[in-house]
Design brief:
The complex is a heterodimer of chains A (about 375) and B (about 500). With about 375 residues, chain A is mainly alpha-helical. Chain A is globular, with a radius of gyration of 23 Å. Classes of the chains: A mainly alpha (about 375), B alpha/beta (about 500). Chains A and B meet through helix 8 and helix 9 of A and helix 11 and strand 18 of B.
Chain lengths: ~375, ~500
């Protein structure tokens, strides 16, 4: 038998059934880096050096007070929706209708603000409660269809985005169109009692920010420390075992629909009452937060609390889009390409977590 | 036989080693397969048989060692590559497309592009005729019995030109009669000069069909011996390293009041077909009733109705003196004392991605002491897990290890620990030892027997007649949704049960 020389040692990929947590982080980090490299090519194609682009983005967002406020402003809806979606994805309820649920929350907030006479102190709390219920109820429709008739929730939640969008368009052009806006398609401005306070000089509506942070902690505790959370994890990881243990799949689906839809509804209240102070065109209420939050939730790997860093990352990218537009004259949507690549690389790298690289020794 | 042994080996493995993280699945395995012989590969679960098969079939590459085919070293890169080199696998569970006909299935990959199933029919008939493999090429695969599907897999390997056929636990899905038919086919293939590698747990079958037997234990070859030198006792000693008794394990039962009474029970399968057509029986405290039958004759539906997973259509079930609510769900029935050791221990009995501790809580996660009101108690969860892991000797690195990483036997112990830790009145045990090694099997049997002495009644569904005859007091057979029996176990024999399982009359 002729032995191969030592130089024939090679690296081999091997399946590893029990990957350490550190590998997950390493692989995710490498995927994010790869996505940045790939998007760098796009910047380069626009004639902007990728290095300049990234430095500009980081300086314009993290090291600039206006930029930082912009980041936080985007962070609020992303962390709210993202934390709710981690729960839904954990339970295998693929809610991609957060955009629509956000709009329903905004509609509910506008309805309360404009048409329901309430004592001033109660207006904002009521808006949040009703916004939560509106978003949750909207997601529940998909949950009921899934639980009772087996209708695929991906299709229903996706399509309900359009329904919500057209509902808003109808309202602002029809019955809710403002009396004082001279034919423009939006409602009257909210009364002062229905407007969220912001940090001075910014659009950071801090009550919603705090609500978002509380939401992540609350959902994390719900998931890891409560009976409902246990049921949710069992039903998500193995529906057959859940059935075997008498855990109601319907209950779990309803719970996650309510939580994820409700959280999106809260985000809608925040956008309407904190930023715009009226109901206006759907594309202006949400800048696609409902979809970006899917990436936020995906990156957090099912842990609501981890949406804080992941929402921050996506918020930086969002705000970075504005910076690039202003400073580098690139289209804002180039940032969509970056987030798309990010998700693509992360999902693509998923399998790699289950493998390890090992130096193969020579057979003796 | 001597002449055959003296011949050049057709296939030879030399020092095959395959490592997985934390385990050496094959450790310097060497064996030979000669033309025209049946080599049995015998070993407990986890002994390395499946890994060896996967290496031979090109699913894994060995870390060390050589595979020689007719004396020449070969690399087997993939299953199709294996078949091109003349090595075919008959998998344990047939991999066929149910909606397609036999011919269409077999034409996959080898038929002509346009009408793949056309020209292959005469070929199939020719091969099937030559080896006594009775199959209809036009029959849709979903109408075939497990034995017929297996024959289709054999034909597939032969069509591909296999000279060496690996049969991976082929009898696990067959009735005794079907197994006998398979052995006939195997003998025919052997006399036609094919080599067969027969993998099985069942010692009698190995002794009945093999020429030589290679025994694996913990990844190593313990011994290779001629069948003439082998006996059940010798083989089991080689497999487990100690001798195992094959006697009836059941001592005199202590029978009490009826625990379960079933009258005229009817239920439908998930596809809406009549699965149970009026089943009657009574099970007393301390009694073990064995339900034999070929899979798909209503056993699953019976257990599902009794465990609350399936609604019954009509009939009456009384459990511990109370009439069972038709809508009772599994959690309520567990409360009433029904423990369920499910057939599919991975996909139903546990949540593989969750920890051992969390799996041990699956039945009582929402009750004190594991939960207070809406909240779970992490400390109690761990205490509960530690106590159960110790009591049932579950071999796990930690109680926080995902249960899916444990071996089959230890997963089953997790289920037993969870289901039987209370004082169950009725234990529904479905294939409780399927795929387990002899050590784990003994432990499962002992636990069930102990529980009957504490007053539990056991409904044991098994395809292993040996198991039923050695444990049960009463035995019944389900055939097409009708229960034949129960009979006292003393009046039943393997042959009479086998006949009932195929619809015969005793």
């Amino acid at each position: 038998m002729n032995k191969p020389p030592p130089s024939l040692r090679r690296w081999v990929f091997e399946p590893d059934p029990n990957p350490p947590a550190s590998r997950l982080w390493l692989v995710s980090l490498l995927a994010i880096l790869a996505a940045f490299l790939a998007s760098g090519l796009i910047f380069w194609a626009y004639g902007v050096s990728p290095l300049t682009a990234y430095i500009t983005v980081i300086q314009g967002t993290l090291f600039d007070s206006t930029g930082l406020a912009e980041v936080l402003r985007r962070f609020i809806p992303l962390v709210l929706i993202g934390s709710g979606l981690t729960l839904a994805f954990r339970a295998q309820f693929f809610n991609i209708g957060a955009e629509g649920q956000l709009l329903m929350g905004a509609v509910a907030a506008a309805g309360i603000a404009l048409f329901v006479p309430l004592p001033a102190a109660l207006v904002l709390p009521t808006m949040f409660v009703v916004g939560f219920l509106a978003g949750g109820a909207y997601a529940l429709v998909a949950a009921v269809l899934k639980a009772r008739l087996g209708v695929n929730e991906i299709l229903t939640t996706l399509m309900f985005n359009y329904v919500a969008s057209y509902l808003v368009i109808y309202l602002i052009n029809g019955p809710w169109q403002g009396k004082t806006v001279r034919g423009f398609a939006y409602t009257d401005p909210f009364p002062p009692a229905a407007v969220l306070p912001t940090l001075p000089g910014t659009l950071v509506h801090w009550p919603t920010l705090i609500l978002g942070l509380i939401m992540t902690v609350f959902l994390q505790l719900l998931l890891s420390r409560s009976v409902l959370g246990y049921e949710l994890r069992v039903a998500g990881a193995n529906p057959t075992a859940a059935r075997y243990a008498g855990i109601s799949a319907t209950k779990v689906v309803w719970l996650v629909a309510l939580c994820s839809g409700g959280a999106a509804g809260l985000a809608g209240v925040g956008e309407a009452a904190g930023i715009h102070q009226k109901l206006l065109d759907p594309s202006q209420i949400s800048l696609g937060y409902g979809f970006t939050a899917v990436i936020v939730a995906y990156l957090a790997r099912g842990n609501p609390i981890l949406t804080i860093p992941t929402a921050l990352l996506m918020a930086i990218l969002f705000a970075g889009g504005d910076v690039m537009k202003v400073s580098l004259q690139m289209p804002f949507r180039v940032i969509d390409a970056l987030s798309g690549l990010l998700l693509l690389f992360l999902i693509g790298s998923e399998r790699l977590v289950e493998y390890r690289l090992r130096r193969k020794e020579n057979p003796q | 036989m001597i002449a055959r042994i003296m011949a050049e080996p057709l296939l030879s493995l030399q020092g095959i080693t395959k490592r997985f993280p934390g385990v050496v699945a094959n450790d310097g395995v060497s064996l030979e397969v000669y033309p025209g012989e049946v080599l049995a590969l015998l070993g407990e679960n986890g002994a390395g048989k499946s890994t060896l098969v996967s290496i031979l079939y090109g699913l894994y590459r060995p870390d060390e060692g050589e595979i020689l085919l007719e004396g020449r070293p070969v690399q087997i890169a993939s299953p199709s590559h294996a078949l091109r080199q003349g090595i075919g696998l008959v998998p344990q569970h047939p991999m066929l497309v149910g909606r397609h006909s036999v011919a269409e299935n077999l034409a996959l990959g080898i038929g002509s592009k346009l009408f793949p199933a056309q020209r292959i029919v005469p070929l199939i008939e020719k091969i099937a005729g030559a080896y006594g493999l009775n199959i209809d090429p036009q029959a849709p695969v979903h109408t075939l019995s497990p034995g017929e599907k297996q024959r289709v897999e054999i034909v597939r390997s032969l069509l591909g030109g296999a000279r060496i056929l690996i049969l991976d636990e082929p009898t696990s899905v067959l009735t005794p009669q079907e197994a006998e038919a398979l052995f006939k086919v195997m003998r025919g293939l052997r006399s036609a000069g094919k080599s067969l590698i027969f993998i099985s747990h069942k010692l009698e079958e190995v002794l009945a069909i093999s020429d030589r037997i290679t025994v694996l234990r913990r990844g190593k070859v313990v011994d290779s011996l001629l069948v003439a030198q082998a006996s059940k006792a010798r083989l089991s000693e080689l497999m487990v390293g100690r001798s195992v008794s094959f006697d009836r394990k059941r001592s005199q039962p202590k029978l009490g009041q009826p625990v379960l009474q079933v009258r005229g029970l009817k239920a439908r399968s998930s596809r809406g077909l009549e699965a149970l057509r009026g089943v009657d029986f009574t099970l007393r405290s301390g009694e073990i009733l064995g339900v034999a039958g070929v899979a798909g004759n209503g056993q699953s539906e019976l257990v599902e109705v009794l465990s609350g997973l399936r609604p019954m259509e009509s009939g009456w079930v009384e459990l511990g003196g109370k009439t069972k609510n038709i809508r009772a769900n599994p959690a309520e029935l567990f409360e009433m004392g029904v423990a369920h050791i499910p057939e599919d221990r991975i996909h139903m009995g546990t949540v593989p991605s969750m920890s051992v501790a969390e799996n041990l809580a699956l039945r009582q996660y929402n009750q004190p002491p594991l939960a207070h009101g809406w909240f779970t108690d992490a400390q109690q969860l761990e205490a509960n897990a530690k106590a159960k892991v110790q009591e049932y000797a579950v071999a796990t690195p930690s109680i926080h290890t995902p249960s899916g990483l444990l071996s089959g036997g230890n997963i089953q112990k997790v289920i037993l620990a969870r289901e039987l830790s209370g004082i169950p009145k009725l234990i529904l045990a479905v294939h409780p030892t399927y795929g387990l090694d002899i050590g784990a099997t003994e432990q499962v049997h002992q636990v069930l027997l102990d529980k009957t002495l504490q007053g539990a009644a056991v409904l044991l569904v098994s395809e292993d007649l040996e198991e039923i005859l050695s444990l049960c007091d009463q035995v019944a057979v389900l055939y097409h949704g009708e229960l034949k029996g129960p009979f006292a176990v003393e009046s039943a024999t393997r042959e009479s049960l086998g006949l009932l399982m195929t619809g015969g009359v005793v």
